[in-house]
Input
Amino acid sequence: MIGLDTNLIVRLLTNDDKAQAKHAAHLIQNHPVFIPKSVLLETEWVLRYTYTLKPEVIFAAFEKLLGIAHVTVEDPTCVSQALQWYADQFDFADALHLASSHKTEKFATFDKKLIKKAKKYNIPTISL
Output
């Protein structure tokens, strides 16, 4: 299994460097690959801020990528939950943080918007 870095996924999804995108596609099509949660987090940020892609476009790209049979993602249950929340207008980073903290009693934050979103899903938070 081969672990993937953010730049490889970004090249694949944006095709902004055709040669690198071709290499990335070949690697993913022909080898079992592993994507860490941190790489997904960074990829979403790069696609949103650098490439100004809309969350619904990023969500669709992630669904397609993670739907490839031999692509394994770190903590798939957590990532799946985060993507569901992301599709429902949650910030991806916040969704991933909350989904990754599912074994905790509460999630502490200063972020009022995050607290409001978390309440919608009955996620216990602590506002400091």
Q: What stands out?
A: Residues 89-128 form one domain. The two ends are 42 Å apart (CA to CA). The mean pLDDT is 92. The chain has two domains: 1-74, 89-128.
